[in-house]
Amino acid sequence: MKFQKSPGTQDILPGAVERWQYVEGKARDICRRFNFREIRTPLFESTELFQRGVGETTDIVEKEMYTFIDRGERSLTLRPEGTAGVVRSYVENKLFGDPDVSKLYYIGPMFRYERAQAGRYRQFHQFGIEAIGAVDPALDAEVIALGYTFYTEVGLKGVRVEINSVGTPAVRAAFRERLLEFLNPKRELLCKDCQSRMDRNPLRVLDCKVDQAHFEGAPSILDSLDEECSAHFEKVKQCLTDMGIPYEINHRLVRGLDYYTHTAFEYKAEGIGAIDTVGGGGRYNGLVSDIGGPEQPGVGLGLGLERTILLLEHQQTELPNLHEIDVYIVALGEAADREATRLVYQLRMQGVRAERDYQGRKMKAQLKSADRLGARFTAILGDDELERGEIALKDMAKGEQRMVAISALAAELQA
Fold first, then answer.
1. What is the total count of domains within the chain?
2. DSSP string spanning 325-384?
């Protein structure tokens, strides 16, 4: 029987995985500089957590979750996004007892049963951050800035930041009536999803990628903001300007999750098909209490790593070669082969990336292997050189070769 990977999943093979390591490394470094600390939560949680946290009328909960009953008759769901699990952990482990803002980040797989398309899989990977414990709009701007910094530092060009305010539940309730007045005459022109959303969550109609042409002249939620929401949004914009983060206002941006309040934002980039959103997030002041914790405000983002890497490839971004090795030991002769085992291990213990041949190949084949692996140096050791305590060290880029003492090889390579 021939086994194949499940639809919507992928094997990330050597040669490609180094790009992932580079991108993930950038995310970790940026989080360190912004003082975010890593958190790791389970891959599956109670189904009710996502129903309550993400929102029962969202596409994620209605159509896309991988849900199953375990042997204890509990309904569990593979996590479709990261925020709900992080907030659950924040509440369960009483992190709200810390007097400082909890600044957390995660990198890992998420699961949604959706139609596969460019850069979108049923098992996908997300880099996300959550900052819980402050209402200051400067924190919203910091989160937006962190995401923008990530995209620019991995080497992407042309990434745009779009922001909006979705206000408070009271603001949205008032805006809902204005929006329905505009939408009701167009009901029959809209797709079935939008017709369904009109009855349950009209704001989500504006998020539709199919019916945007019908929304020309739609009322803007920005015109319904109260004084508090307007002041919050103005300070977010001011902070972004002060940091030099470019942004555009998109009054139709609502995001696909029900827990957002005040700030909502997305990162857009062209080049990976019809859907150009590569990440986004927003403020969620009511989510912690909805999940059983105290009233604690929060703001966060989630960025798709598959789409980031696809964009890097599309833009032909030059990435550092993380796989190349420092030295390849070429052993010729029985005694030299035995010494190579000791020498490679010794070099590795001193921080040198070293490799050797294990297939008994001739010198020419070993040198070809060193070239394929991107070795900066080859160190050629025969039985005669071994007796003299020497090894031939060749610089692969310059083509220069010289003899060095075996005992000094590590120091020569590190220099």
1. 2
2. -SEEEEEESHHHHHHHHHHHHHHHHTT--EEE--S---HHHHHHHHHHTT-SEEEEEEHH
